[in-house]
Each structure stands twice: as C-alpha cells, then as structure tokens.
C-alpha cells in the first residue's frame, strides 16, 4: 500500500490509482460500480465543472491562476454548482488558504441529507456506514464514497490530510488522538465524536476504530463512521418494536411466504397454548387444532395471494388453554423494493366483547321473537295451533328441540282443575319442533302423545310448584318424567346436553309445560335464556287460556245450537229432504244459522232456512227462539208472508238484548204435493235455487237418483230482514214439475270476500244441474265446492226433491153452491166416498163435522164451497170458501141453538185448523181411522 502524501489530496501523492487507470496489460481497474455508490457520487458531482474548466477553489481560499472568480450572487447554471442547502455559504477546508489542485469545483453542499432514504434501498440507506482508512499519524489514506455522502467532503480534498482538521472542537481533537493511540495499542476503539460536514455544521457520529496491517506489516486504522442520529432512530425503532412485540397485549405473528412462523410474541404463544419456540418454522395447521386452523389458514392464503388486508375477523378460539373468541387481522409484508416477505398478523382476545355484543344481539333477537310470536298467535283461538306455533317459534333460534305439553282440559276447552296436579293429571304433547327428523326425534317428540310422569320427577315438581328448572350435562335427564322413559334414551342418543322445563301458566294455574333442549356443539342454556323462556311461556299461557275459554264457549254454543236445530228431520209425503249444517271454522264463533222442515195439514210441507246476524251463545239462543216462533206460526197453517210478518212483529221480544235489535234473514216455502204448487217468500235472504229435470227424465221416486236438469234462481221480492221493517213481505206461487230440486241455503255457502253473490249462486246452480246417484250425494257435492277464501261463517243447506204425494193415497173433491142444499149433498158425498174407501168407522164423525163446517160456509159465504177428502195415515177433510176471515170459536149457552159447530170440531177431530188460500180460507180437520169416531179423552 502506498504511504500517505505530504498534505496534498492528489491520488498520485497518496499512491492510489488515478481515475481511468488501467491494470497491467491494458485492462481498466475495477470502478466503483455499486448502484447506490454511483448514484451518490453522481449527485455529489452535479456541481463539478465541465471539460476544459478549471476546478473552483475551496470556499474561502484564493483563486487559482487564470481562474475567474464566480460572483457570489450568480445563480447556478445548468451544469453549475448547487446553492448551499443550509442557508449559508460552504466554507473552505480548515487551515487551507487555497484550494487543492485536485479539489472539486462545486461550491454548494451535497444534495443528500443524512436522513434521506433511497427508494428501493435497504437499511444501510437509512443507517449509512462510512469507511475511512487512516495512517498511524491520523492522516486520511482512503475516504469512501459513503463518507462523501455522509459529510459532503470529496475524497480528492481529504486524502492526505489529518482527520483532526475535520473536528472543530479542540477537546474532541484530543479525544480523537487518544482514540487513535488506543486503537494502535489495543486493536479497537468505539465511541462518539463530532465531525464538521462541508457546510461547517457538526455531525455527531459513532466511530468504530480497528487496527489493520497490510502485506508489508504497515499498520493502518480503519474507522467505521455511522450517523448517531440515524442510529439512535433505528435503536429507538427497534426498542419500540421490541416493546410492541413482546409487551403487547395483542398476539403478534410474522409468517414467511410459505406461511410458516418466523416470529411470535409471548401473548400469542399463551393464546395458542404452545411455547413461542415451538411455533418457529411451523404452520398454523401444525400448531392449532384442525377445525380452527382451516379457517385461519384460508384467511392467510387469501392475504398472501391478493395483498388485501383482512381486518377484525371474529372466529371461535381453538380448544386450547384460552377458549372463547378471537379477532384476527392479517396484512402482507414487502421490503423496500416491493418483494413479498410474508404476512404479519395480530390476534386479539375479544371474548368479552363478543359476549357483550352477543348478549345485546341476543336480547334484540329475543325481543323480536316475542313480538313475532305475539303476532303469530294473536288471532289464534285453537290450543293445538298455539302449541305448535310456540314450539316452532323457539326452534332453531332458541333451541334444537321443543315440546309443548298441555293439560287435556286446555286442549278440550274444559274447566281448569281446582286441585293440585298429580300423576293422574292427563297431559298431551300438542306442539313439537326439531332441527332434524329421525326415529329418535319421533320417539322423543311425538305429536299427540299422552305424557305420564312420577310425582317426584322434574315434570311433577314444575307442575306442582310452577317454578322452572334448568338441567345441564348429566344432571336430571333420568328423573325428567319416570324411570326408563324411552324419551330420555332418545334424547341421550340425540346428544341433548341442556334442557329447560318451564311452566305454562294462566290465572295462577299451571296449564302445561314448555320443554326446550339443546344438543351437539351448541352452548348450554344460561340464566338469560331461562328468563326469556319464562317470559315467552307466560305470553303463550295467556293465549292458551284464551283459546280454552273460547273453545268452552264455542262448545257450549255448538251444543246449544245443535240442541235447537231439528233432531229428526221428517220426510213428508211428496218431498225427499237432504240437509247439511257446517259450523264456522275454529277461527270464528258459532253463528245463528238454522233450517227446518215442518209438516203441514194436507200433506203439505214448509221448508225454512234462516240466519241470525252475529255469533256466539246469544246468536244461537236467538236462533232457537226465532225457529220456535216460526214453527208455532207455521202450525197455524198461515200463509208464508203472514208467518214472516208475525215473526217480524215479535222482533223486539226475540232480540238478543234490550239494546240490540233483532236482525235476521229467512226464506219460507210451502209445497203442496197434491196441487204441485210451491209458495215462497223471503226476508232479505239468499234466494232459493230451483232445478227442473228434463222432459225425458224418469219419474221421480224417493231415494232414487237425481237426473239433473236446468237450474235457475227464483226471482222473489227481496223483503227486508226481520227486525228492519218498512218493506212488506210478498210471496209468489208457482207450479212445480214432478222431480224438481229446490235448494235453500245461508250466505256462508255462496258468499266470499272477493267475489259477487252471483258468482256463488252460479257455482251452486252448476253443481246442482249435474246428475247424482242420490240427493245425499248432491249435498256432499255442494259442500265440496265451497271456496277456501270464503268468510268462515256457518253454512246451512237444505235440498228438497219435490214430487207427487203418495201414489196410493185416494183423494176426492167437490165444489158445491152456497145454498142450503149443499149441506145434505156434502153429507151424502162423504158417506159414499168413505164407504168406497172402506173406512165406514169414520163416516158418522166425518159426516157430522162436514155438515157443521159446510153450514157455516153456506151461512157466511156467497160463492161456491169446496170439499176435499184425502186418505193417508189420517183422514184429512178440507172445507174451503171465498170468505177470508177465519172462523171464530165461541162457547154457546144452554139455551142457544147455534154456536156449537167449531166446538164439535175441536172435540171430535184429532187436529183442526184454518189457513188462507187465495182470496179465501180453508178450514180442515183430521180423523184417525182407529179412533172409532170418539174424540180424544172420551
């Protein structure tokens, strides 16, 4: 190695090769080709003069010969020097009056700041290490490019000069000399000192001196200089990193590109239950259980592949020492050049936060469930449906399996028991729900199963005390109901580990049990779940009790209604009747619909269908009173419109209460088979439908098939509903072909919410026009066409096939003039006819009563008198006249010659009565062939 020169900076003086020197043989010497070094030197030399220009002197030195001094205020040219960056002129090298001949011509400081980082560089660009070689006297032998960048002094200026000249503080100079001697003596030294940069500002550096010996044994000192400020910043960053990494309450991990741990802190090691050193070199799948590792590994791969960070993903903690919930965040790491190094992640234990949020969310879901359950059962009045809704509401949101057990009295609408529950209490499981279905589930939760239990079991205790119980783990399943219960074994097979048995209460009485269970990996029930289930059960208990009360009232109303409806519907001569009564659905109360078939004298039949507005017991009771009134008035053989008028006049007495008016509709029809006439009137009711068979249809016979035919709605005066008034009742009379089918019904059959009444009547006609094997089958067909969307009202349907009277029933009739001779002639005709019919035992009585009635007709009437005899089971005698006023019975005195005719009729006839017919009236009486002419009681 060449020895130092005598103070000059030239490379020739220092023995160093000059720029552009070549190796022996013409090969150039290796240049300083490091990218960072070349760039730094280029930046340092941006102010160097161009070719042909003399280098400028160091600041403060005399100008060299022939060099024109540059004005201080002259701005730098495109290739000129850079103005001092620190706001003051750069000074000359200490102790040098003139610039060194080889000094650089730039007068400005270096544009590199010590703290500036080079983009894409490494840590050495932040903490630069400058190498300086000194001889034993402290003169610069080698000034590295890093030293040039750090302090701004070019090597051409410093090589050969004493390093003491760069130290402004005399005390520091003395320390530097002492450090140099100690290095020569001991081989190394390190410490801090200050060196002036090219701007004259002191730069604190950390120096590490080392003794070097060349091949000839000459000693040199190598000084490794590092900026103290940058070094302290790095040390501070490392200290902060160590504090954050090791002392952080968060788990921190660093993984390479193969997703293997390169570093983990103590917090994460404790979270994973594995020492930190056992993480290094292993993947997440090798350190955590498989179920948790799969989720985390998927997130790590996503972050490594895409570079998109994943922040605050909550996962269940693995089954390690610290179970609960974790929040994981991962981001990709790259170096300063953009090369992917791996990923870093933080793990935070958020168990408390998760549970707090879950608690709030659970409370919100529970409130939502309560509201939803209330809306779902608010309009239900069926205990079985409410029980099923309750079971379905808690599965799967609250439990995996649910069963609702009710007292039989609640299910059937009976009174609640007044005594305590014991093992004889009848329980039914009416609501079940499960997250899955299997034979074990069917065994544990069978709909409609009868539940038995021991008095000291969980079921028995909860039923008696009304205190809910929470069972978890292996505590209690065996004593749930009774020893050996197959439901308990089925629950064990399904993995049930937590169970709540909660009473269903109403009016302070336990009316059933709600049993909910959890199985599998689901967490067991806690106190909040128990409190919520109790609240839900209390609401359900109120709804169930309302359903029980409704069922009891509805059962009573149905019982009353069925009692008030006809128990046995007669089949009068000439009429074949079929009927159906369908109570409203369980969502509504029983209505006041009714029908009736009333036999009238002369083998005539009254057909009645009516509907009382309203529902419930009061409507049913009103219906009963109304039906009784119609039946009594019909027995008087009054005209149909007269019957309805009288019923309307009784409206105030038949109303449901003093503050409620009677409002009912009714249709009343009377069929006379002998005359084949039908008289119909209605009071605001659905009009009847008449189906007439075709001309080629076979003669009608009772019990035979219905041939079908052409149907139509009878056009009747509407009439106001009973209780309204203001509209007179009118009837129409028509001739009916043999075998015609008359249909009377209530509005529940043909009305719907979204369709007109004509649509329902048209559907009824289309059904009745079809042929059927019997009239009963026609009834079923009509009911089968009811729309599902119809109003849930009662339905009363009455079908009557109208035909001739008894084929073998003899009938005889005459018309007599209103003269006195009509009486004797009537007696002769009656005597002869009864003799021909073989009923001579009735001759005397019939002749006597006919004589009295014809006499009254001759006395008061002025038109022909009709006499008709009909022999069936009874002998019916009818006397008609054009006088509309009915006869009045009076009691004759002992001396009176008349006034005993109607009294004789009353005494000797089995029954008698009068009815209006046309413009006149008919007085009739009946005699029994086996009565020997004696009146009842005689």
Decide which structural class fits the backbone: alpha+beta
Overall strand count: 31
| Overall form | rod-shaped
The proportion of residues forming helix, as a percent range, comes to: 25-40%
Are there runs of 5+ residues with pLDDT below 50, and where? 1-91, 95-118, 932-938
- Overall mean pLDDT score? 79
N-end to C-end Cα span: 170 Å
Strand adjacency order, main sheet:
13-12-11-16-15-14
Radius of gyration: 60 Å
Number of helices: 25
Largest sheet entry: 6 strands, antiparallel
Range of strand content: 15-25%
Defining key terms:
single chain, 938 residues, alpha+beta, disordered C terminus
How is this structure best described in words?
With 938 residues, the protein is of the alpha+beta class. The protein has 25 helices and 31 strands. Helix content is 32%, strand content 24%. Helix 11 (383-394) runs antiparallel to helix 16 (527-564). The chain is rod-shaped and about 185 Å long. The chain starts with 10 loop residues before the first helix and ends in an 11-residue tail after the last strand. Residues 1-91, 95-118 and 932-938 have low confidence and may be disordered.
Summary, kept brief:
By secondary structure, the chain is of the alpha+beta class. Helix 10 (351-377) runs antiparallel to helix 11 (383-394).
